[in-house]
Design goal:
- About 5% of the residues have low confidence.
- By secondary structure, this protein is of the alpha/beta class.
- The chain contains eleven helices and eleven strands.
- Helix 6 runs parallel beside helix 11.
- Strands 7, 8, 9, 10 and 11 form a five-stranded mixed sheet that branches.
- Helix 9 links the parallel strand 10 and strand 11.
Length: 286
């Protein structure tokens, strides 16, 4: 009996081991961590921004070359790009976990070296909400979905700021060089739909299809949205000078900073909606 009481007494003073954290990423791979990570490398700007929006920027020890928001991450060690990560630089940072896109070539290489990798790549609003929830679990942040509720409310407010005459405007949004456009299934396309805009890119073409310039000419959009990085030479594209949007100067050219907001499916999506709404108010209405 005395031995039993001794065992019970010891159990009372020895703290129980915290439960493992298990997160299933976009590959369907379940990653198990013994505790919430304190050293994180993020190789996708939208993931970097989400970690910081959750209030855990201090856990980041390295980021990809494109992660530039919030300003505090700009001083962190750079570990290459999402497509071409520097494996040596990442390993040297001794991360507890690496956050990166499913399309990155470095996932298997890092795992082969024994690092924990969570591969997540949001492409639409549902993805962004799901990733926010998973990162909230990973970082043990209570009620991470409060951030999503604020994003959703901000998008709704941007939509309500536009007059009825804006509804149905036919829009072409060029995301990057080479004619890659925002399709209806992308988060940008979804934001456009929330604002009542009609995307000239049809759904069967996918989230971010490469569009032939002639396709845009035939569609003859009311409004064109494009980044400053891509606008050079736009009027010289075959047939573009005669399009309604160019003739009537209904073209919104977004700065590099604005484009970063618009092309990242993360916590700044409400700001992205406001940028789109401002474009419509300034250029889209007759």
């Amino acid at each position: 009996m005395r031995s039993l009481w001794l065992i019970l007494a010891l159990c009372a003073v020895v703290p129980a081991r915290a439960a493992d954290i298990r997160i299933t990423d976009d590959r369907g791979v379940t990653v198990t961590l013994p505790r919430t990570p304190q050293r994180i490398v993020s190789l996708l700007p939208s993931l970097t921004e989400t970690v910081c929006e959750l209030g855990e920027c201090a856990r980041l020890v390295g980021v990809d070359r494109y992660s530039n928001f919030p300003a505090s991450v700009q001083s962190l060690p750079k570990t290459g790009g999402g497509i071409d990560p520097s494996i040596e630089a990442i390993v040297a940072l001794r991360p507890d976990v690496v956050l990166m896109a499913t399309s990155s070539r470095g996932v298997q290489r890092l795992e082969a070296l024994g690092l924990k990798v969570l591969a997540m790549e949001p492409k639409n609003s549902a993805d962004a909400r799901r990733v926010l929830g998973k990162l909230g679990e990973l970082l043990e942040v209570a009620d991470a979905q409060r951030i999503w509720r604020a994003i959703d409310a901000g998008v709704s407010a941007a939509a309500q700021s536009l007059p009825p005459g804006a509804r149905g405007l036919r829009v072409y949004y060029e995301v990057s060089t080479g004619g890659y456009a925002a399709g209806t299934q992308s988060f940008i396309g979804e934001l456009m739909a929330r604002l009542g805009l009609k995307n000239i890119v049809t759904p069967e073409l996918g989230p971010f299809p490469r569009i032939n310039p002639e396709y845009v000419v035939r569609a003859n959009p009311d409004l064109i949205m494009i980044g400053l990085r891509n606008v050079q030479g736009m009027e010289q594209r075959p047939g573009w000078a005669g399009m309604k949007a160019l003739r009537e100067q209904r073209v919104c050219v977004f700065s590099a900073e604005q484009s970063d907001v618009l092309v990242r499916p993360g916590p700044r999506m409400a700001e992205a909606a406001r940028l789109l709404a401002r474009c419509v108010a300034e250029k889209g209405l007759p």
